[in-house]
Amino acid sequence: MKVSNAMPETALKRDPIVPPGSCVYAIGDIHGRADLLEILHRKICEDAASRRAKRRVVVYLGDYIDRGSSSRQVIDLLLDRPLPGFEAIHLLGNHEDSLLRFLDDTVAGPPWLFYGGEATVASYGINPAAQLPAGEDPILRMQAELRRRLPPRHLEFLKGLKLMHVEGDYLFVHAGIRPGVPLDRQKPEDLLWIRREFLTSTIDHGRVVVHGHSISTWPENRANRIGIDTGAFASDRLTCLVLEGKARSFLQS
Ligand SMILES: [Mn+2]
What we know:
5-stranded mixed beta sheet
């Protein structure tokens, strides 16, 4: 008899569902592409109009800012033109977390600016390459400028972002979770940054984890996780997962 090496994926609940009567939309990493968000919002409205679900929820998985050229505009769009008739949940991404840290501590500045933050400060009208008077610390200057130019409602939005959200058998989080650790003992560092240990894990996490943060060409629709960061800032493909009952489908910009 052949010995099975099957991973314990078979232990997963056969048909994970979202709450009855709800349709849940999850949007991956936007990274300063307000143009793509606008297109995707339109497609979500069309899709929702064709469904009977009474409760509509949209979960944004974080990383609204950095890399793309329109970070400020993405936050404006989320605040000023929310999807009508939807409950909106905004999760925290590691890029927003880095911006918030930089506002309090200049040490967080250089790595954040290098990994896409320069595009964000530019979208707030700050020239990252500006010539400074001799002796002036460019990072200190940048921090002061960002504190001055970040609209209070943007700061309030960023500070209000959540780490996790649950809908039925699905858990939504920016990067993933540390396998084997209960949800109430997960560290924010892992929820915002984890990659390999989570991406390669095939264990049942209790809920199907819907996440962004790690780029793949196509959505990764696995038994224990669904990855929907399709690298919109460079690929022009912003991805949305649609969950209703036990059905999963995808929309793209
Ligand atoms: Mn990320």
